[in-house]
């Protein structure tokens, strides 16, 4: 597990503020570090804020519904296929005994519906992005990588700055090199959405047997 120093210098101009940074540590097949990339991540997409909206009505489970109801549904967001949806699964679903109160990023081995993901897309990030340009699949076939489970560090609070780090190891288990040019963060409630996407510069090439530990540090500076 890597430890990232908070990168909050650029966040002090406006308070409060939300930012992010990423760090990619590349290990050779012997486990030795051969490359480290650390950058500020400035590419939250619209879904990051759209997932905070509740649609309220006097009916439905605990007053929340997945769309429509007593009020018009405004500013819907898109799932990973680009379909416009009216809810991300964050409303209490008491009738079935469940509570989808959060979007989750704690993915298990091979789960690409949430957690950190990689891709080969090169098109610049826009606020309308809803998925990776070209997602790299999980596996050991040509062009695929093994995605370990994602991992969260505890909240770190220093003064008015709060950070949380999510990380994930990816490994090239194929016989050919594979390069990723983009990283992102998927979250999942009843659906999956993307909230962060960054074009990685320089791109990261993993030779057979090599791994990369990718970490996003999410920062709230109050």
Describe the structure.
The chain has 222 residues and is mainly β. It has 2 domains: 9-47 and 103-221, no CATH class; 50-99, no CATH class. The chain is built from 1 helix and 15 strands. The strands form 4 sheets. Strands 1, 2, 9, 10, 11, 12 and 15 form a 7-stranded antiparallel β-sheet that branches. Strands 8-13-14 form a 3-stranded antiparallel β-sheet. A two-stranded antiparallel ribbon has the order 4-5. It starts with 16 loop residues before the first strand and ends with a strand.
Question: What is this structure, in a nutshell?
Answer:
The chain has 222 residues and is mainly β.
- What is the 3D shape? globular
Structural class: mainly beta
In N-to-C order, the SSE pattern is EEHEEEEEEEEEEEEE
Strand content: 35-45%
Count of extended strands: 15
Q: If helices are DSSP runs of H or I spanning 4 or more residues, what is the number of helices?
A: 1
Largest sheet descriptor? 7 strands, antiparallel
Task: Please give the domain count.
Answer: 2
Helix content: under 10%
Mean pLDDT: 77
Distance between the termini: 27 Å
Radius of gyration, CA atoms, in whole angstroms: 18 Å
Low-pLDDT stretches are: 1-14, 54-75, 87-101
Topology record:
Elements: E1 17-27, E2 33-41, H1 47-50, E3 56-61, E4 77-78, E5 84-85, E6 92-93, E7 98-99, E8 115-119, E9 146-147, E10 151-152, E11 156-158, E12 161-171, E13 178-188, E14 192-206, E15 211-221
Antiparallel strand pairs: 1-2, 1-15, 4-5, 6-7, 8-13, 9-12, 10-12, 11-12, 12-15, 13-14
